[in-house]
Amino acid sequence: MQFEIKANNNKGLKATTHHRKNDKLQSNTPREVKPMPTLPHLTSDQTYTIVSIEPKQNLSLPMLGYYLTSTATINVEDLSDVSHTSGNSVELENIAKYLIKSSQPELVLHIHGYANSESDAKIRYKQTYDDIKKLLHPTSKNHVFVGYRWPAENPKSDNPQPGTSKPITFLDKVRYALQALPTLLLGTLIISLVFTFVTIFLLLWSNAASNFILTSLVITFISSVLGIFIRKVADATELLVIKIHGVILVFLALLIPAIGIYSPIFNNLNLFLSAIIVISVFLLALVVTLMALRLSTYLRDRSRASNYGVMDLVKFFQELEKAILNEQNSRYSHFTQWKLVNEEKIEGDKIRIKVSFIAHSLGCEVATQTIRILSDVFDPNALSNPSSKIGNVFSLGRLVLVAADIPLESILSSRSNYLQSSLRRCEEAYVFCNEADLALRLASTAANYFSFPYRTRFRGYKLGNVTVNRQSLKQKLNLNNYGVCNCIDDDYSNPNNPHEHLEVRASGIERKSLNKLIEKNNSSHEIGKIKTEKKEIADYFTYFDCTDYQEKSNQGILSFSKKQSALNTIDYIRLIIAYFFGFPRRINVHGGYFDGDFCRLQINELAFFGYQGILLRHLGSSRNKSDSSLFNNLTHSQQNDLFKQFSEDSQKNYIQVLLASKQVPNATSERNAVNKSPI
Fold first, then answer.
1. Nearest-CA neighbor of 412 among 527, 326, 297, 534?
2. H/E segment holding residue 136
3. What is the C-alpha radius of gyration for the chain, rounded to an integer number of angstroms?
4. By CB count within 10 A, which of 79, 368, 538, 551 is most buried?
5. Packing angle, helices 597-616 and 118-135, rounded to 10
6. What percent of the chain has pLDDT over 70?
């Protein structure tokens, strides 16, 4: 793309001024909209592929469904399979036509999390698509569903490389980890491993002085075999030449018994060898720990999510907006709701495509960062009063965060909250969490220890670690402790602030309420003599604590559903065994939200229909859940009865709910000015 810079002169300024005056006089005349400028398409710049979920999909269906897949690979050396790229423009054009013809167009994206394989992600997306298709009114034709696959890596195995049929196994990943070791770490691994075996052998060998020749031969053999084997597996045959490095390694290995046996300084051979073992094992453990972190794939997934997952999704939005504007200008200009060309037109008369997200685990980072990039940079109100508008045709709708692997800081009002303006752009926001989430409680917080700038333990936890405060309940919880927990006397119109009922539990003994974290965060401050209070972001969210969630009697889905005030050490040990080894039964503590029918439908319906759709299910399945007028026409008492039935449904499944107490600043839809209720 070439840019031409021209000198500024008075004549040019006059012409520009005259042109602007004409624009004002002709404000009622439609003008062609130019889409946001994008980088030119390079021949290899195909960042995603998009294919329909159903083999035969037409524009007459009540909902369109697509798989959106990033073309980024697991490793930078891998080949990319872009066999479906030729169909991208066709599918984007179909989506544009479908949304333009819709009276209330909505685009819902589902984003998977850490370590999800492509096959598992597609199974979940197909399930979401099938669930919602059954609930949609036949005449709806407003929704487009997109399941987004970003390049996450499964620690156990990955799909075969393009052109091959052999899957990538865990042993392959171990070999890759050795091959990727930097020179210093590889040398440390070989030397520490050899020294460990040599010293252990000498400690177990009796009368080493009289058998020095035999001992030396054994040491030479151990050093040579281990050195050559690791050097071969790590693909370092050119780096570690045998003639030089092999001789040095054997010499150092022989030096240990020679010093220990013949040196007058060391009177106690065992003490000397024990010291060598301690040092060698320490260095060996250091390298093995770094390899284990790589094999867990968590940090690698975070890098791919930020550098590929987010950027490729942004590219999709750019090209979809371009396709929509092209279609509107060329074929559908008679649809008055799409005449965005006149910027002086009343904003309430315009129509925008509502974009909603279902994000799980690390996918929450992809969703929030995408929103941030698309809307923050060129929005002058991004810091003070961020708008839900994104670009020329989109607006942010609902945000459903499941087991959110984003910092706890995201719901605290502070300078450190880099997601504040992004999260406040949505019309409705929901968080699904549970105390038993080992993936967030152990793996994610461990990675946070050296990657996130925090000083105290509790600030290193994630949003998915936040749970309902049960400190006042010393005994086991009963049925009445579930359902909506922050409303008094069944009045759901004025719930208490959620942040007053939330906490982070490190254990049954060590726990901290969100209130205390907010107080330390200086939620209120004084400017001169005027005291101002910050609005707590936490109160804009509705929380679903699914720790004890069950559908069958005493069959917990995310935990063993012990209904305790807090999980103890024994509970966590049992959960680790159940999660990793499936004994006595498999419990998916991190992704089980999608395994149970009730919770999965709650997540999907909130994203597609919002709180009104969840409540309208109690009026009968024949009702159109997308029609907000049905709910708004109800009396306050009738609406309150629907909330009560919603609370009872959650209660039966042992889910605790905290309703949002504050309306999101930009909760008024760009196309329907409706009153929002606090869910």
1. 534
2. none
3. 30
4. 538
5. 30
6. 76
Instruction: Indicate the range of 33-47, 76-90, 438-452, 599-613 predicted with least confidence.
Output: 33-47
The DSSP element (H or E) to which 389 belongs, if any, is strand 389-390
For 146-175, the pLDDT digits (tens) are: 999 999 999 988 888 776 778 889 999 999
Relative orientation angle of helices 212-233 and 170-179, to the nearest 10 degrees:
100
Contacts of 238 (CB under 8 A, 6+ apart): none
The position carrying tokens 């979809």 is 320
CA 316 to chain centre: 18
Angle at 653 between CA 649 and CA 659, to 5 degrees: 60
Query: Which residues contact residue 675 at a Cβ distance below 8 angstroms, ignoring those fewer than 6 apart?
Result: 632
List C-alpha distances in Å: 66 to 108, 129, 305.
10, 9, 20
584 prior amide bond cis, ω within 30: yes
| Residues 276, 256 contacting (CB under 8 angstroms) | yes
CB 619 within 8 A of CB 611: no
Question: If you count them, how many residues does the chain have?
Answer: 679
Using pLDDT thresholds of 50, 70 and 90, give the confidence band for residue 549. Answer: very high
Half-sphere exposure of residue 579: CA atoms within 13 angstroms, side-chain side: 19
The residues near 140 (Cβ < 8 Å, ≥ 6 apart) are: 62, 63, 624, 626
Q: Helix H segments across 102-237?
A: 118-135, 170-179, 183-204, 212-233
**Separation between Cα atoms, residue 65 and residue 54, nearest integer Å:** 7
Residue 456 is predicted with a pLDDT of: 81
Beta strands in 3-142 (DSSP E): 48-52, 63-70, 106-111
What ranges in 490-568 are assigned the alpha helix state H? Answer: 514-520
CA distance 30 to 178: 62
Q: Is the pLDDT of residue 471 over 60?
A: yes
Report the pLDDT value the prediction gives residue 594, as an integer from 0 to 100. 96
Closest CA relative to residue 387, chosen from 340, 352, 421 = 421
**Spatial distance between the Cα atoms of 322 and 334, rounded to a whole number of angstroms:** 18
Tokens of 268: 């106690």
Q: Which range is most confident: 220-224, 607-611, 660-664?
A: 607-611
In 47-186, DSSP assigns E strands to 48-52, 63-70, 106-111, 143-149
Q: Are 640 and 582 in contact (CB under 8 A)?
A: no
Distance CA 324, CA 47 (A): 19
Q: Rounded to two decimals, what is the model's pTM?
A: 0.84
**Phi (first) and psi of residue 402, to 5 degrees:** -115, 125
Q: Residue 589, SS3?
A: coil
